[in-house]
């Protein structure tokens, strides 16, 4: 993390979140029934929302490194951070997909769903936090057991 961030960095992150949440609410993607209809091939509106977001993001990621050497608010150089496609990505993606299909909502849209009055989404959010916490505990215990020397060492 860069300690020399521009003073507007955090406020702009907040504004970006507001725009994101408003867009999800406006497009009805913060409603689990709309997402479930997409997953059941009954409503393809989500495809257009995600496709539009992918085009805007793709253009920004392609153009910004050509226009500027460093990010304007952080001063960090632009670079690709590639995560290898491994077993953890495959299993985690499958688990995420099952949770998305069962709840009808992904994490970003879950918070936006609160804004449109869906209070029952708190159950899904609680499940996301508990699941993430359990995974974090599991990963730290696994890292500790892998780094602990055995008697044979």
* Largest sheet, strands/sense/barrel: none
What's the end-to-end separation, in Å?
A: 36 Å
Q: Number of DSSP helices?
A: 6
Shape: globular
Oligomer: single chain
β-strand amount = under 5%
Order of helices and strands: HHHHHH
Radius of gyration: 20 Å
Helix-strand makeup class: mainly alpha
Number of domains: 1
Low-confidence stretches: none
Q: Average pLDDT value?
A: 84
Query: What percent of residues adopt helix (DSSP H or I)?
Result: 55-70%
Provide an overview of this structure.
With 153 residues, the protein is an all-alpha fold. It has one domain (9-147). The chain is built from 6 helices and no strands. It has helices at 9-26, 32-39, 45-67, 87-103, 107-115, 121-147. Helix 1 crosses helix 5 and helix 5 runs antiparallel to helix 6 (121-147).
Highlighted features:
153 residues; mainly alpha; globular
List the helices and strands and how they pair.
Blueprint: H1 9-26, H2 32-39, H3 45-67, H4 87-103, H5 107-115, H6 121-147
What would a concise description of this structure say?
This protein is an all-alpha fold. The chain has helices at 9-26, 32-39, 45-67, 87-103, 107-115, 121-147. Helix 1 (9-26) packs across helix 5 (107-115) and helix 5 (107-115) packs antiparallel against helix 6 (121-147).
């Amino acid at each position: 993390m860069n300690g020399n961030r521009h003073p507007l960095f955090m406020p702009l992150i907040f504004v970006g979140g507001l725009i994101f949440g408003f867009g999800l609410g406006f497009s009805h993607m913060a409603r689990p029934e709309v997402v479930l209809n997409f997953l059941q091939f009954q409503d393809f509106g989500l495809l257009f929302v995600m496709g539009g977001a992918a085009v805007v993001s793709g253009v920004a990621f392609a153009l910004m490194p050509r226009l500027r050497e460093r990010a304007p608010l952080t001063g960090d150089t632009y670079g690709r951070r590639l995560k290898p496609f491994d077993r953890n990505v495959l299993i985690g993606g499958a688990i995420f997909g099952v949770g998305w299909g069962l709840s009808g909502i992904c994490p970003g849209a879950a918070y936006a769903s609160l804004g449109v009055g869906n209070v029952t989404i708190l159950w899904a959010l609680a499940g996301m936090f508990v699941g993430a916490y359990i995974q974090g505990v599991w990963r730290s215990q696994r890292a500790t057991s892998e780094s602990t020397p055995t008697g044979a060492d």
